[in-house]
Write a structure and sequence with these properties.
The chain is of the alpha+beta class. The chain has 5 helices and 12 strands.
């Protein structure tokens, strides 16, 4: 798995893109160090926490808010929220005015890209894990070439003890149609079981890498890559911001689900920028 020092997203044009694309095609994931300056992350984190507290500056709620049971405290606590960009224009502007879209398009070979879905994760001490999965099996409602690519932004320093992202390097290249999970998405008793079954069925083996992240680091992984995260065994809350990105020219297809049909107009298959903003 390649780790590359960026030291400011604005330097993206000068990178060795042949090397990066070849590495991404081989491993299905790259880690960019210091993609965002700390000052930008501090501002983004402040806006995300406001949404977590129920302060929606735009007047729009996130599309989903997920909670996880805390057995020790005998209560449910905030785990994550999807499409928080709708709730705060500063979050939306952060994304669309960044080089995330440029990176995603270059790695996937797209002319342009758009936001598919974002997720703000706020995993408290002792909670987790996220079951190993692929992103693309949940993306069969559109025709984006290659499915999606996911940018995962560290909002703070994330160590292995905190149960950060785990990547099964190269697993995106195994030829097998992905499936949605049978296990719960969060809080599974065996969060790697689905991936272990996948390896057994396909007679394949992959190295699982758990990189450490500094504030402002961003990983990019392919929608077919198996990944998950462990229990947060630290005393700190693990906060991160994940963005699924898809091809700018993507359209709805015939497999559209009841959930995503709410974002589709009756007279066109085009994706509306009001719901899927284009970079």
């Amino acid at each position: 798995m390649v780790q590359i020092e960026i030291n400011n997203e604005e330097k993206a044009d000068s990178l060795d893109w042949t090397f990066l694309k070849n590495s991404f095609n081989r491993d299905g994931v790259i880690l960019t160090k210091n993609f965002f300056l700390k000052e930008r992350i501090d501002s983004l984190k402040k806006s995300l926490i406001e949404v977590k507290l129920g302060k929606y500056k735009s007047g729009l709620l996130p599309d989903k808010i997920k909670y996880q049971g805390d057995k020790e405290k005998n209560c449910r606590v905030f785990h994550s929220a999807c499409n928080v960009w709708k709730s705060d224009s500063e979050i939306k502007n952060f994304l669309l005015h960044s080089r995330l879209g440029f990176f995603a398009s270059r790695l996937m070979g797209w002319d342009s890209c758009r936001i598919n879905q974002d997720t703000f994760f706020c995993v408290q001490s002792g909670l987790g894990p996220t079951t190993f999965h692929q992103d693309n099996p949940y993306q069969d409602w559109h025709d984006s070439s290659g499915g999606v690519i996911t940018a995962w932004i560290a909002l703070e320093e994330i160590t292995k003890e905190m149960g950060g992202l785990e990547f099964a390097v190269g697993s995106h290249r195994v030829s097998r149609k992905g499936e949605i999970l049978n296990e719960p998405f969060i809080n599974s008793d065996n969060y790697r079981i689905e991936f272990e079954n996948f390896e057994q069925t396909t007679n394949s083996s992959h190295q699982i890498v758990t990189p450490s992240f500094a504030i402002g680091d961003v990983s990019f992984h392919h929608g077919d890559l198996w990944h998950g995260s462990g229990v947060n065994n630290s005393k700190y809350t693990r906060m991160s911001f994940s963005i699924h990105l898809m091809e700018g020219s993507a359209k709805f297809n015939t497999n559209i689900s009841p959930y995503f049909s709410r974002f589709r107009k009756s007279d066109t298959d085009d994706l509306d920028n009001a719901f899927f903003p284009e970079f």
